[in-house]
Amino acid sequence: MDASACLAGDSAAYQRTSLYGDDVVIVAAHRTALCKSKRGNFKDTYPDDLLAPVLRALIEKTNLDPSEVGDIVVGTVLAPGSQRASECRMSAFYAGFPETVAVRTVNRQCSSGLQAVADVAAAIKAGFYDIGIGAGLESMTTNPMAWEGSVNPAKIATEDEKTQLKLGTEAFHVDLIHSIHHISSIAVVDRRGHDP
């Protein structure tokens, strides 16, 4: 199927038994701008207010009927407990999705957004639904990446490298953005190289 048929909102053009079989296609990609944590333009923006406009843009640009979506899967890491799941659910409501559209979160650390897309693709391929949304959401301002739990004392006391974090137990307090800059300098990848 031609992606323009999807973008034109012609869901009738899609047939699972068609020439295209059970291919899974990505028809749109949207994101917020990047800003600095704790001091950028989004520092006073709640996570649900970050995701909702992106979901709304997806609906508008693809002429998607929100009720046709089988699942919205959002990759996230930092929010404690079920807080982020609730924020993602509210984002879907703000964007215009009905309560019949399921929303869930997935955490696979730095690749959580990619895992969300993979989960949706696998569910489509398996025939659970025909249309799904894979997304990612993080707010380094509202959910700073600082360790607030306790570390197993046996892990701290041992000298065995296999049980120590590569950057040491104090690495819990290193923001993700600092890690990215460090890795980029080692791998010699400039800022433009990270963008699609």
From TrEMBL:
InterPro entries: Thiolase-like, Thiolase-like_sf_Thiolase, Thiolase_acyl_enz_int_AS, Thiolase_N. One of its GO terms (cellular component) is peroxisome. Gene3D superfamilies: 3.40.47.10. Keywords: Fatty acid metabolism, Lipid metabolism, Transferase. Pfam families: Thiolase_N. One of its GO terms (biological process) is phenylacetate catabolic process. The keyword Transferase applies. Residues 24-155 form the Thiolase N-terminal domain. GO terms for molecular function: acetyl-CoA C-acyltransferase activity. This is Thiolase N-terminal domain-containing protein. It comes from Brassica cretica (Mustard). The lineage of its organism: Eukaryota, Viridiplantae, Streptophyta, Embryophyta, Tracheophyta.
